[in-house]
Amino acid sequence: MARMLGGTGALHFLAPEPFDAIVPRALPGSPRTWTYLSGAAELAVAAAVALPRTRRAGALAAAGLFAAVFPANMKMARDWRHRPAPLKAIAYGRLPLQLPMVAWALHTAHAAGRRDARP
User: Fold this and answer.
1) pTM of the model
2) Rounded Cα–Cα distance for residues 29 and 41 (Å)
3) Spatial CB neighbours of 24, under 8 Å, sequence gap ≥ 6
4) Which residue of 32, 80, 91, 117 has the smallest Cβ count within 10 Å?
């Protein structure tokens, strides 16, 4: 999970344009600002998940982050609804993947909590 979040977080800075395009218009300010803020959040959460001492809190933050980016994935699906079938499948396929990602993060938090509770 830390690798995935770290890689995606880094992409927000290395290639921000695709992320800018899926920032919901209802958010105030520049899409680029939201791209950088969400990238920084992903990097911070990745670091927290990677460290055993902060893994539980990081995994809980990851669950929240995965839920928070759902509107961007919905915007992408709506924007890509007229694209060729393979691209449309990618956009729509991302939507149900959010649930297992949230579940993965919660499972990680629970497992980290059990390890922390050991005497």
Assistant:
1) 0.88
2) 17
3) 71, 72, 75
4) 117
